[in-house]
User: What shape does this take?
Amino acid sequence: METQKETYAVSQSNNSKVRIDKINELRRSLENPTNKFEEIAFNLLNNFVIRKGDKLYRMVEIEFYYNLTDTANITYERITEAGEWFNHDFGVDLTFKSDENSYGGILLRSIECEEKFFYGPIKTRAKLFQFDALGENNEVPMLEYYPRETKIDPISIPRHNISEKQNFRYCIPKELWKEHKDYRAYPWDYKGNLKIK
Assistant: This one.
């Protein structure tokens, strides 16, 4: 007869395999993101958190930048593997596999931890990438598979402060934004309508 301890060990082992499979699945989509923005956004906003030490941060709002689809021509050039952090003047990206011909990533615009929201890409980067430089607190941010109990359908809208009208910005539904006071990029107007340019 199987003991509770053995069952728990098998369960943990299966969870580890699922987590590894999900990370590898995400990495594959980041290696070739063409025509996959909606799929990647759904996956990130539903199935992944950013672990920093003992804190888990949910992504609330993300924007896609990819030179092969970006009509505004504002994607930072980079040479990276899929799934790296790329810091730049306007925040931090989760990178696509990038070289001199095709490059880009996903800008983290807003995050949430324990119902506390951190709005804007600069504040988000500061929250995630301010940590003990000696590594003693194990606070280097990393993605972790941690699915929501109830799946959401991300909202797709034009990117903030960019003149072209491509819907490359994805965020959680309005009812999940617990706070947004003074956040100028909040996707809804005072009447509750999406801000569409």
